[in-house]
């Protein structure tokens, strides 16, 4: 019908606004590399390129019993991790909600004493014998032996200025926390003081950023022994940490105030904070929906890459695109003869109570449902619109239009995600070196596996990823790979060398591994 043709055409037009083609991808990669270099030279740049004081990644043979805690937002997680030394581990964990009054306590001591208490409870429950024995000795004036001490990795997801592997000054609280007295203090020391007050056999050995945890977790568990290059998160936010040559981290080498770190590996893991890549929009795409999303956000002009890529924002981009169309009376979405009396009422009236009219009203998981529903008629998509978004009696054509726009937003996010991956692979020169048994020709009838199995292990560039978006958005990795093949210097041959694997438990096993490597230096 005329209506369905008009609808399809308009949906295509909006989808096309989210195109991020090969030329644009290549320009962005060049800009990312430029910003990487700039961030390594000096402080206060667009890409923060924060030295993490972690100087090596694990290879899967690490052994021992470690602890990790994670203060992220709502919950505090405590776990112990037994590394078996054969790329496997066992993890025991407990989780407790942070009482609201402690999030805004008068003194830091109140919060950190509570955290230490949780560590004590955990030890009593899961390592009772060990805890009892060390406590007794301590109380009778003895000392805890070095090999009885648990090294602990502390994942602390607030902005800190790291000045050592287990030293970091809190810059400011976020996510509803507000304890003025803690700002400017070393959060590791605050925790250690309360642990010591309880005589626990625990040393806060490392302050951990979640991307570094992801990198470490992947490097320990990944099938190869080459070491992982990059750990990346595509969840609520997006960020990545990678292995850089220490002599390129000029700002650290020249910093008089830098703390101690192990220089023997010649490497330093750098936390890029790539959510703020290209805040000045030299190369990022910028649709009217991006502009509106940013203008109405709590931090306009900041985290511009993240606002086009991560789970927190993609649903909102789709919402803004749909609302823009629904407000246009000439646009036929949700207005056909099946959709009730849409010809006589305005859509706004009919779906008045739908969350689609409110900021953040569409969750990014809806984009996954759209992309995953290839069924004729898109029943799943229509059911979700009905059940979760109060938009009922949607026609198959409407569903197709929504799917087209949602797909374009998801695809753009994945193609943007290829930018930092490619830039880091290129900047660290990982594609140079022996090509080994790598071949560019495909075996007849066999599609080469992701990070091809026929490559020599030392040619593979391993990347660990985590987050709901990369885990659950259908074909997110395929879209990344398509873009990687289009990038100068990577191409088909380079793309095949890149192995992308999910790395779970960055704040558990990853933090434990950082505590382990930290223990080697301390
Ligand atoms: P976090 O990054 O906070 O540790 P997650 O990795 O689970 O947690 O990411 C949560 C984000 O992922 C939210 O923004 C949410 O909207 C989005 N999300 C949740 N489920 C899905 C899904 N199935 N597909 C795509 N995005 C999802």
3D architecture notes:
The chain is an alpha/beta fold and 522 residues long. Helix content is 42%, strand content 16%. It has 19 helices and 13 strands. The chain has helices at residues 2-17, 22-41, 100-103, 108-126, 128-139, 187-197, 210-221, 250-253, 288-295, 306-309, 311-326, 347-350, 365-372, 379-389, 396-427, 468-472, 476-485, 491-497, 506-521, and strands at residues 50-51, 63-71, 75-84, 89-97, 150-156, 160-164, 167-170, 202-208, 228-234, 238-245, 267-271, 461-466, 498-502. A hairpin with a 4-residue loop joins strand 3 and strand 4 (89-97). The longest helix is centred in the last third of the chain and has 32 residues, at 396-427. It is globular, with a radius of gyration of 25 Å. The termini are far apart. Adenosine-5'-diphosphate binds at residues 235-236, 311-312, 363-365, 368, 467-469, 472-473. Adenosine-5'-diphosphate binds next to helix 11, helix 13 and helix 16. Belongs to the hexokinase family. It comes from Trematosphaeria pertusa. This is glucokinase.
**Given the helix and strand composition, which structural class is it?**
alpha/beta
Helix content: 40-55%
Would you report the number of β strands? Answer: 13
Largest sheet: 6 strands, mixed
Q: Low-confidence stretches at least 5 residues in length (pLDDT < 50)? A: 339-344, 434-449
* Largest sheet, spatial ordering of strands: 1-11-10-9-12-13
Number of helices: 19
Strand residue content: 15-25%
Amino- and carboxy-terminal Cα gap: 73 Å
Radius of gyration: 25 Å
Protein name: glucokinase
Domain Hexokinase N-terminal: 11-220
Family: Belongs to the hexokinase family.
EC number: 2.7.1.2
